[in-house]
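User: Sorry, what's this?
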Amino acid sequence: MTLTRLTRQVLAGLVAAVFVLMYVPLVLVVVNSFNVSQSLTWPPSGLTFEWWQRAVHSDGARLAVWTSIRAAIGATVISLTLGTLLALALQRFDFFGKRVVNLLVVLPIALPGIVTGIALNNAFRGILGIPLTLVTVVIAHATFCIVTVFNNVQARLRRLGGSLEEASADLGAGLFTTFRLVTFPQLRSALLAGGLLAFALSFDEIIVTTFTAGAGVTTLPIWILNNLFRPNQAPVVNVVAVVLIVASIVPIWLAQRLSGETDHVR
């Protein structure tokens, strides 16, 4: 399809406007983390590392980071295990209700976070009688992080086909031997990419966390929300937000690189 010069210019302008709208606020957050003024005036009257030093020595911020890391690791481990098993089952086997199961696996990522949060809160407290702790946060995050692993693994399995696994079975290898020596080596980059995306998704989740975290469980996004409107904490919140931005960008960038390199090789 050939586009006219005017059409290309209009599309380029729209893309530029979208990127400006998306990324200029992020740049402002980074700059304000060095702003000497607590009121975050613009343009900054000067730059300082004071807020970064305060953030490093903030017990609340450090504890929140560690809580988010633990929750993200737990959710990622569960997602890698269940997401891979579900992808293998749905891609390699035929059974009654296969499409329904596929829909149910993907549905949590499409539901509004507040709906998922309320449903899980009711399930934990009202039905199961489980107190809200870090464990409930991990389980809650895993419900939607599974989708990222599932999609990555299922897409890879679809491209690979099953000929190598069938050949392994014909040569006498059992199910687990075939998975260990044939399937898993071909899935490693997809698993790593899905795991990185799951970690990033869990690390900055706030809506579902709000409904499933008990008293004393404060993840980094919740800590930011609790301190956002405190004047003396606003600059430190900007510093923590920058850390959160980096922690979200790096896994996604690595996952994209892994997926891109694998596709290029194939």
Observations:
- The mean pLDDT is 83.
- Residues 145 and 198 are 5 Å apart (CA to CA).
- The domain at 48-265 is CATH 1.10.3720.10 (MetI-like fold).
